[in-house]
Structure prediction request, 157 residues.
Amino acid sequence: MVAVKTMVEGGKATTGPPLGPALGPLGLNLGQVIKDINEKTKSFVGMQVPVTVNVTDPSTKKYEIIIGVPPTSALLKKEVGVEKGSGNNKENIVGNATMEQVKRVAETKKPSLLSYNMKGAVLEVLGTALSLGITVDGENARVVQNKIKNGEIEIGE
Prediction:
């Protein structure tokens, strides 16, 4: 089995680099592979998505496509509607997320996070929000993290 791993923009993969040169020598129908990738990633338009193409049987050209979850920062930026994070998160706030948006990102990312439960996943997402310069319900993400740790804000398991 041959595996090709890369990042592509959701719904906009092309036969050019990085996919074309990696898959071309394997003899796959590039047009079909790209079409399949774009179909599976169309819900992540505007975000970089990890994609793995496993060529399970090179002689019959059988393959499977595994789509990963975009980075937490990309999901947060999409939720908040900002292009990029703050260059200086202490002085420059780029947007505000609701706790529901943070929970939605945590739920999406939970399988790939280090956390064992939803509370831990939300705390991880809040760390990313902090570094991007995104407040949560109008408060600094670190303050929200502390409120969760102190039990002032309840997060379900």
Notes: The domain at 72-149 is CATH 1.10.10.250 (Arc Repressor Mutant, subunit A).
